[in-house]
Design brief:
With about 210 residues, the protein is mainly alpha-helical. It has helices at about 5-20, 25-35, 35-70, 70-90, 110-120, 125-135, 145-180, 185-205.
Length: about 210
Amino acid sequence: MPDTANLLAFALIALGMVLTPGPNMVYLISRSICQGRTAGLISLGGVALGFVFYMMCAALGITALLMAVPYAYDALRIGGALYLLYLAWQAVKPGGRSPFEVRDLPVDSPKKLFLMGFLTNLLNPKIAVMYLSLLPQFIKPEHGDVLTQSLMLGFTQIVISVSVNAMIAMAAGSLALFLGQRPTWLVLQRWLMGTVLAGLAVRMLADSKR
């Protein structure tokens, strides 16, 4: 079992990650705006299944990888940090877009909404970074079984991400209207996102090997 401080620190990082727009948030917001809240929540169901898939694969894979390859942790940490820096640049570069800018999408069936939510999450590199680069930093072999700690941390991330994304999907239309009438807020939201991502990247790069 992870200790309370470790679990809380991971929960805060998971919250920061879910609040920084990526493919999941863009898809859920777009669906909620174009097709309604129900469509957004159905899509979120697929996203949640993708989280469970990632969690199970990562929990089993991390256990084997970190025990078999001495420098695997550092490779994952550095690779993840570089990707976060790339996401930060994408957020603040000239011409970057906020996920709350309305996009036109065709109306899809509930089955397709769920499947697209699942595939969007499955192909989301930000979630791969979360599970392969961030999660291992909070696993301490001296605190017990590595697999149990991985699952506990994974469930924490899933609960936080699904809860936050559900609230965003429900409020997407109102937020899009508010931000669309205030271009300055759109720019501020992008810079806030970029700052959080860059901060996470620096934290990962500065973290010493366990």
